[in-house]
Design goal:
487 residues; alpha/beta; 2 domains; six-stranded mixed β-sheet; 21 strands; 27% helix; globular; binds zinc ion
């Protein structure tokens, strides 16, 4: 049994100026793929021969460059064609996120799946495992035999989902069933911070899947929330069911769709959320410390560029106006080329290696988007994702800058920068809901509706290509009758 495995895993904000390319992707080939995915083979795995294609995965970012996608495609489809020529393949397994954008392309995963179908023909099964924040276009749905996604957000069932797809692939090859599948598009688009499955209505909605699968005798049933930061017609919720009875897959998809639509008003931010001014005011007067503020619009974990300074500027102004002496840390800003104002008023760029010699001198650091921050360089540090970093301090206000995009989600990262969370009064991070260690450390917190490439207030973003009607853009109360697409 020869199963070809590969994929492309990224979520790309089309509202980001960042371009994801060669440096952003971690690439697996050959043995790397066999080791990574071979663990999902059933016990009698000896009969399974994994044919490694290429798998590339990146942090959420901006659209993928044409150059990277062309190189990836050449390798991926080249290896697939070679495998077909040299011994054939019995199945193709795709591991993708589902929200990739490539400059100039609208439906990356659909195009990949369609090309695979062209190459392998109608008889060879294709299975695909995704993130529930991916999108399911008709093209993708039509091209694959089996499609599944995570059932938890935050995602704690990634391995389970990957295994489910692997096992389904093996069954498809062994049993040669006539597998039917149904898809319903749900006209709602939600930001990630409203789609937690740990709280209602997500908990019950995703919680119904096991029951529906059992009651309708399905192979699988999945719910996608979709990715809201791409301006594409495929961005919205979706449901897919698979089973051997066409009536059952249709009925199950319909049932889940009705439930999804019925709870559409109930999706809410998973924690205290407000706009900039009230959030800043709350943090400045709070006696609970550390008070965490989450600068959500620039969250690199969802595709933010990690360089907006609007919120920092507003926070710093309010801090000074209040005469505050609170200890405040802003983590962090992506500053690939640090610059300071030169004595003659011009700009002096300094590589990270040269920064230590500035230690102790008060300088005006020229941060992104015209934010001039007068500070002394307090400390250099190294971050696993962010590379070289520096702590810039103005009194009790510290701003962390890093050479590459990163997100300060763990205590260890702060400690590397010389910051003990409990010693701070206010800590600003760029994420949505707080990562577990930060959440445990927070005496109080608020998610802030800041603008940016992953603005959580979707109606503020300049969309042009979404399919309508779509909540929240057209309100939540238009008529919706589920249309079931069956294959
Ligand atoms: Zn996700």
């Amino acid at each position: 049994m020869r199963i070809a495995i590969g994929g492309l895993h990224i979520e790309s904000s089309e509202f980001s100026e960042y371009r994801s390319s060669f440096d952003d992707f971690r690439v697996l080939e050959d043995e790397g793929i066999v080791e990574r995915y071979g663990i999902y083979a059933p016990e009698a795995g000896d009969a399974i021969d994994i044919v490694p294609l290429i798998h590339a995965r990146a942090l959420p970012g901006g659209p993928v460059t044409c150059e990277f996608f062309a190189a990836w495609s050449e390798r991926f489809f080249g290896l697939l064609e070679q495998a077909i020529a040299e011994g054939g393949v019995d199945g193709v397994l795709l591991y993708v996120h589902g929200a990739a954008s490539v400059v100039g392309m609208d439906d990356v995963e659909g195009a990949i799946a369609a090309r695979v179908r062209e190459l392998v023909g109608a008889e060879v099964p294709i299975a695909c495992a995704m993130d529930l924040h991916g999108n399911v276009s008709d093209e993708l749905f039509d091209a694959v035999d089996y499609l599944t996604c995570y059932r938890t957000a935050p995602h704690v069932d990634e391995a389970e989902t990957e295994m489910r797809a692997f096992r389904a692939m093996v069954r498809l090859i062994e049993e040669r069933p006539h597998l039917h599948r149904a898809k319903v598009d749900i006209p709602i688009l939600l930001p990630g911070e409203k789609t937690s499955t740990e709280v209602e209505p997500g908990a019950s909605l995703y919680g119904m899947l096991e029951r529906v699968i059992a009651e309708h005798g399905l192979w699988d049933a999945s719910i996608w929330m979709g990715y809201p930061w791409a301006d594409q017609a495929r961005c919205h919720g979706a449901i897919v069911t698979e089973g051997t009875s066409i009536a059952e897959v249709r009925a199950a998809a319909d049932e889940i769709a009705e439930t999804y639509w019925a709870v559409r008003h109930e999706f809410a931010f998973v924690g205290p959320t407000d706009h900039e001014a009230p959030a800043i005011a709350a943090a400045l007067v709070s006696e609970r410390q550390p008070f965490f503020l989450s600068d959500m619009g620039d969250n690199p974990g969802a595709g933010g560029f990690d360089d907006t300074t609007g919120f920092l500027r507003e926070l710093h102004e309010a801090y000074r106006a209040a005469g505050s002496e609170k200890r405040l840390t802003y983590a962090s800003l992506y500053v690939p080329k640090p610059a300071v104002r030169a004595d003659d008023g011009g700009t002096l760029e300094l590589p990270y290696e040269a920064l230590p010699m500035l230690r102790g001198r008060e300088l005006t650091f020229l941060l992104p988007h015209g934010f001039a921050f007068t500070a002394t360089l307090e400390r250099m540090f190294v971050d696993a994702m962010g590379g070289e970093g520096a702590v810039l301090a103005n009194g009790n206000v510290k701003v962390l800058i890093t050479q590459a995009r990163t997100q300060f989600g763990t205590r260890r990262q702060f400690e590397a920068a010389g910051i003990t969370l409990e010693d701070e009064d206010i800590v600003v991070v760029k994420m949505g809901y707080l990562e577990p260690e930060l959440s445990a450390a927070a005496a109080d917190w608020m998610m802030v509706l800041t603008p940016g490439a992953v603005d959580q207030d979707l109606v503020r973003l300049p969309f042009h290509h979404l399919s309508h009607p779509l909540a929240p853009f057209d309100g939540f109360d238009f008529d919706f009758a589920p249309e079931v697409r069956v294959r």
